[in-house]
Structure formats: structure tokens, C-alpha cells
Amino acid sequence: MPDLNRRALLAGAAATGALAATASLAQPDTLTATPDLSGRSILITGCSSGFGRLMAEHFARMGATVFATMRGTPRPEAAELVQIAERDGLDLHVLRLDVTRQDEVDEAVAQAERIAGGAIDVLVNNAGISFGGPIEIQDMEATRLTFDTNVFGPHRMARAVLPAMRAAKSGLIVNISSQLGRVIAPSYGQYSPTKFALEAMSEGLAYELVPHEIDVTVIEPGGYPTMIWKNANANSLELVARADQKHLSGYPELVERLGTRTGGGTTDPMDVPRAIAQVIAMTPGTRPLRRPVHPGPKPQIPINELTAKVQVDWLGNSAFGPWVKAVHNA
């Protein structure tokens, strides 16, 4: 029978507190608490814009040692973060990291661990990419890049940080998924398939890491007004420009809309950093496997609840039962 170690003790001793904490996270649009993240080392991918950029500064201002990573440095976004850190005395380090390059993953993680003096406490896999449009028009170039960034990237990152985390018997991996990682809308290309894969990989990893006392949380944002929409529009137009007419001709209405998508309205992208900060501050072993974040509808919640029940009912009495129950606080 798998050994639960600290997680089992904490899940029992802190059950009431965990339920209260989970309940307090139910409405991300009302998050106002500012947990103290002093002493935590946090590595974040995709920090040139969007959630990653907001997280990097927010967590550093909450006392964490932050490793903000991005592709193609030097670049203006990196220089801006360095300037803010120097001006305000933040423990924030900008590192070059393209999640599709194993050499850059290895070097950035090794550098962060040297600076931190050991294992990274929290990895946030935030880097992502999207090409819009019907599945048929997604050529292999777009498909490979989407999977390489959204699935293989988090896998590379997890493999890089886990040896030190396991040695420390402590850590948290946060994977940024999407509502579209549990529900599907047409004409989002391979985005949903990659996020579904990330959700599955995260859950399997969460079970396997129970004996090592390492938590995994999947963040499921709804639509927010970040650069992902502008970047996805540009990617989609490039895809259409090189697509064969025999594929495009089947979807005139869907293709016509590509390049003009916007999303999120007036929602506050800071919902996501605030929600993650609260998850980081929770007692290890009581953190949620999945955390929907959006002030509006969250259609994935009943799916999350049902799949958790199915997993516990299916494997709860097997040799893996303690792991599955620990992850789902069952």
C-alpha cells in the first residue's frame, strides 16, 4: 500500500481548515487577501506578458524570491522587470528560458536552484500558445508548436525541478490550464486538446507525487484580457496565409472570424496571481487539485466534481487508493 507520509496526517488534522480555505477561494473576483510569501522561491515561465508578468511582480512584492523566465532575452520586457526589481528592492531574477528547448530549461532551473540554495519551492508552468481555427486547418507546424509549448514544455519543466523537490520532500507545481481544458468550444484549434492533455498529466503527476509530499494544482482561468488574444490572432492569420484552400474551403464562416478575437471583457487578470498566491500559502497536502478562476460562469466545475468522484470510486479501494484520496481530500 502506498505510503502517504505527511500528506495523510495533514489531511486529517487540517480537514476543517482546508475546507474553509477552499470555500474562501470560491469567488476569485473577490480575492483581496495578501498572503506572506517570504522565504518561498518561485519559478514562473512565460513572464513577458499576461499572467506570468503579473505573477512575477506580485509574488516578489509579497516577499518571494522570484525567477521570472521568458524567451529570447535580452528583450524590453526583461529589462523592465530588472529595472523594477532594482528600483524597489525586489528579489526578482529574470532568466532566459524557452520551454521548447531542453538546454534552456536545464540551464535556467540549475541557475535558479543555485541562487535559491536548493530546490525551487514552487514551479508555475504558465507559458502557452494558441492558434485559432478548425482542427482541419491546423498544419503540423502549428500542431507541433502548440503541443511542444503547452504540454511538452510543462513536462520538461517538471522533470527539471522534481529531483531536487523530491530530495527536499517538499514543493508545489502549478500548471496553468483553462476552462477549455475541461470543456470544448469549436474553432480553437489544438488549444483544447493540449489543455486536456495538461490536465491529465497534472492529475497523474499529483497522484504519483503524494509519497514525495509534493503538491500539484491546476489553475483553470476563464477569459481574461491578456496578450494571449493578440498573439493568437497573429498566429491564426499566419496559419491561414499558409493553409491549403482544400482545407480552408470547408469552414468559411469560422476562418473569416480569425484574427479578430478578443476576450475577457473588463475582468481583472490579477484574479489569477491572487488565486495562485492563496494556493501557495495553503498548508501542504490540503491544496486543491483544480482551481477554477473567473468571476463569471465556470462550466468546468461539475466536470471536476464528477471526475473526482469517479476517480475515488474507481481506485479508492485499490493499492493507489491512498494517493487518489489524498489528492481529492476524500
Core attributes:
330 residues, alpha/beta, Rossmann fold, 13 helices, 7 strands, 11% strand
Task: Please give a structural write-up.
With 330 residues, the chain is an alpha/beta fold. The protein has one domain (36-308): NAD(P)-binding Rossmann-like Domain (Rossmann fold). It is built from 13 helices and 7 strands. It has helices spanning 6-13, 15-24, 50-61, 76-88, 102-116, 140-168, 191-208, 228-242, 245-248, 252-257, 271-281, 301-315, 321-327, and strands spanning 41-44, 65-70, 92-96, 122-125, 172-176, 215-221, 290-293. The chain has a 7-stranded parallel beta sheet, with helices on both faces. Helix 5 runs parallel beside helix 6 (140-168). The longest helix is centred in the middle third of the chain and has 29 residues, at 140-168. The radius of gyration is 20 Å and the shape is globular. The two termini are 17 Å apart. The model is unreliable at 9-30 (pLDDT under 50).
